[in-house]
Design brief:
There is one protein chain. This protein is mainly β and about 120 residues long. It is built from 2 helices and 7 strands; from the N terminus they run αβββαββββ. The chain has a 7-stranded antiparallel beta sheet with strand order 1-2-3-7-6-5-4, covered by helices on one side. Strand 5 and strand 6 form a beta hairpin. The two termini are about 20 Å apart.
């Protein structure tokens, strides 16, 4: 998706490097630009902080918060602090993780490394 299309879709403005950052009470979302397109999206679910990397979590519940149906995804890797799914329909890699001790759970979307 182009930066312009993404900005319209999320109601945000690109910064000087093209990234779009949206903050709310529930989440912190960063849409990272590469060239004129969004190449990566990261959504931190604020209400899940502080989380521990040694504490398992229910990734299906986190996907549900973002209105994503887990049955449409293929779970390809599950570690205590990091789950990876492939969305074959949209050709995306979806990662749910606790990035560091005390962080909120986050969901990342990227077409890079999809299927690898």
């Amino acid at each position: 998706m182009s930066i312009t299309e993404a900005a319209k879709a999320v109601g945000g403005k690109p910064n000087e490097v093209g990234n779009i950052i949206i903050d709310s009470e529930q989440s912190h979302m960063v849409l990272e630009a590469e060239g004129n397109f969004i190449s990566y999206v990261d959504v931190e679910i604020k209400k899940t902080a502080p989380w521990s990397q040694s504490c398992p979590f229910d990734s299906e519940q986190i996907l549900g918060v973002l209105s994503i149906n887990p049955s449409e995804l293929e779970l390809v890797r599950k570690q205590t602090h990091f789950h990876t799914y492939y969305d074959h329909k949209r050709k995306l890699k979806v990662s749910i993780s606790c990035q560091y001790e005390g962080a909120p759970l986050s969901v990342g979307f990227s077409s890079k490394y999809y299927g690898m």
